[in-house]
Amino acid sequence: MTAAPLYFNRDGQEISLDQWTELIEDDGYRVVAQHYLKRRSDSQVGMLSTVWLGLNHTPHRKEKSIFETMLFPKVNDSETHPAYHARYATQQQAVSGHMKSLRSLCDGDALWHSIETDEARVLLANLEGPDGYKERIDEVR
Q1: Parallel, antiparallel, or unpaired for β 31-39 and 112-115?
Q2: Where are the domains of the chain?
Q3: Which terminus of the chain has a lower count of CB atoms within 10 Å, N or C?
Q4: How large a percentage of the chain has pLDDT more than 90?
C-alpha cells in the first residue's frame, strides 16, 4: 500500500518536499488573505489570516486540508494564541471561509471591526516586549 501524498500546491496538485520547501518561504504564495481587526471593547488589535499550508494535515481523510484560517488576538504585549481556527481543501474554500469568518467577526454589533493596515501598524508600533505582537504579525504575514 502506498502512502497518501502529503504536499500540494495551491491548485491541489501533488508536489515534492523540495517544491513545498521553496513555496512555503514565499509570502506572496503562502498568504491567501489577511485582515487586521480592532476589538470594539478595548481597541485590542488582532489579525485574521488565511494561508496556504501545502502540507496535508488530514492524510487519513478523503478530503485534504492544505489551507488554514486563524484569528490571532493580542493576548498581552508578548504573547498571542489563536482564538479561531479552520482548515480547507481548496483555495476557493479558503477565500470563502476567510470572508465568512471576517463577516461573522465584524458584522453588526460583533466583537471586532476591520481596520486599515496603516491604522493597525500605528497601533502595533506602540506595543512593547521582546516577542511583541507586532513581531508575531510580521512573522505570520
Answers
A1: antiparallel
A2: 17-140
A3: N
A4: 38
